[in-house]
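Readers of this paper often ask what the protein records in our data store actually look like. Nothing more is needed to write down the fold, since each code stands for a local backbone conformation. Below, we set out a record of this kind in full and without editing:
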Amino acid sequence: LFRCAACDLVQQIPQPMIEEMENIYSINYFDAWGEQTSYQLYWELKRSLYQKLLNSITDVHIAGGNALDVGCATGAGLSVLKDMGYSPYGIDVNPYAIETAKNRTPYASVHHCTLEDAPFTPNFFNLIVFSDIIEHVYNPFDNLNNTYHLLNKGGCVILLTPDIKSFSALLMRTYWIHYKKEHLFYFSKKSIERILKKTGFHIVQLRHISKPMNMAYVRTQLLNYPIPLMTTCFKFLHSVLLSKMDKKLFNIPMGELYVQAIKKI
């Protein structure tokens, strides 16, 4: 990892080639979510997260209208956007995710593409959401610059991304759960603020946020991204006790930054 001394942005060097990233984003990518074993549990978990993200929005100048979920996965966020009165649009680079989202959210307009290739015109959206996505893209600046142009004046962008300077990152060090091959960049408050201001946004909120979790999701994450000792201990505890909490939602600090920014009127 390389940290820029000027802007505090941390970048994975060398970055995986496009072909390697395509292999990562296969149908098996969602095994760590529980897609194949406990789809309903993870679906409701992801819906709870999006409800929290959207309910946290303040100082909204435009309500309703078109909303884009960047990295929409299998569609849980799209369903929440629909429930909250938006016309949902989604994009994703994972073919399985796109087909699944089309089946589960037939009312949404879903496209297999990146933001750079998306078939949208300027000023088309009132809301754009990057939930655990901006760290996956090859050029965060270009993505946020495109986002700015796709938003109406007064439109809002929401970002959720791991904070590399969070307490959990400092505590777990090399075992931090957010250190993954597909995470090409890591942000801090300083670096995300800098990039948003450079792309023209006005920041409304920049703070840490806890994430809804359940034990079923924690279990699949630790099995797919094992942490020495912790995974072994959790597997034992889950088998004798914690499995009773598989469906129960709880909030836990994961070292995530919540950002709300607007395109000024």
